[in-house]
Amino acid sequence: MDRALSTVLRSAVSTVGAGRTDAGVHATGQVVSFAFGGDVPDDLDRRVTALCRPDLSVLSVAAEVDGFHARFSARWRRYRYLILNRAAPDPLRRLVAWHVPEPLPVEAMSANGQAAVGEHDFASFCRVPEGGHAVRRVDSVTVDKAGDEVRVVVVGESFCHQMVRSLVGTLVAGIDVAQALGARSRAAAGPVAPPHGLCLEEVSY
Questions:
Q1: Main-chain phi, psi angles of 98, to 5 degrees
Q2: I need a labelling partner for 100 at 20 to 30 A (CA). Which of 69, 140, 147, 195 fits?
Q3: Which residue of the set 22, 43, 90, 144 is catalytic?
Q4: 16 Cβ contact list (under 8 Å, min separation 6)
């Protein structure tokens, strides 16, 4: 997107995203911000979309007050992880859902996930950079099933690298989330779920 914006605006532009979207992760509600002092064309969204298609589409563009930052101004973010839970895979959903053929205990997963709600040290679920920390606040964790899809929705103030995917992997593996949190060791949690099942759905300011 930076290259497309810079091309349209004829000036070097560097964007900041509201949430993590590692390679393979999707977003339907991503928000980005950038500083620019010149005139912005009315059709910026259309022109940037044309340069970024088919991987990215700009839904809207708005001028914000000074000091707005897509990442640091956010109050909470909502991620949804999609699991295809049936014996046979689905070629049409292979890029947006993790195929788990064994039946999943959705109610038990939901109960287990409640241990992640609140402010905790999520070192067991994150890649913690040197000198950083993994203390984060999670507002809610819900697990439900509709047809052959299991959906894990996590809402929180912020997330560290691979935190949601690690939580999903832990729930699918049936590992006790409370015990994993207490261990503060990556070895205590489950595997990192594949990136393609994760989607950033909404960011609130």
A1: -85, 120
A2: 140
A3: 22
A4: 32, 33, 34, 69, 70, 71
45 is catalytic: no
Query: Would you state the torsion angle of the CA atoms of residues 57, 161, 205, 4, taken in this order, to the nearest 10 degrees?
Result: -30
Q: What is the pTM of this model?
A: 0.93
- Which residues have a Cβ under 8 Å from the Cβ of 63 and sit 6 or more positions away? 40
Distance CA 74, CA 86 (A): 36
| Rounded distance between C-alpha atoms, residue 128 and residue 138, angstroms | 17
Alpha carbons 137 and 41: distance in angstroms, whole number: 39
Domains of the chain in start order, with CATH, are 1-73 (3.30.70.580), 76-204 (3.30.70.660)
Which pLDDT score, from 0 to 100, does residue 21 have?
67
* pLDDT tens over the chain, length 205 residues: 999 999 999 999 999 999 876 789 999 999 999 999 899 999 999 999 999 999 999 999 999 888 899 999 999 999 999 999 999 999 999 999 999 999 999 999 999 999 999 999 999 999 887 888 999 999 999 999 999 999 999 999 999 999 999 999 999 999 999 999 999 999 999 999 999 999 999 999 9
d(CA 196, CA 148) in angstroms, rounded, equals: 17
The DSSP string of 158-204 is ---TTHHHHHHHHHHHT--HHHHHHHT-GGGS-PPPPGGGEEEEEEE
Tell me the residue ranges of DSSP E strands in 28-75: 32-33
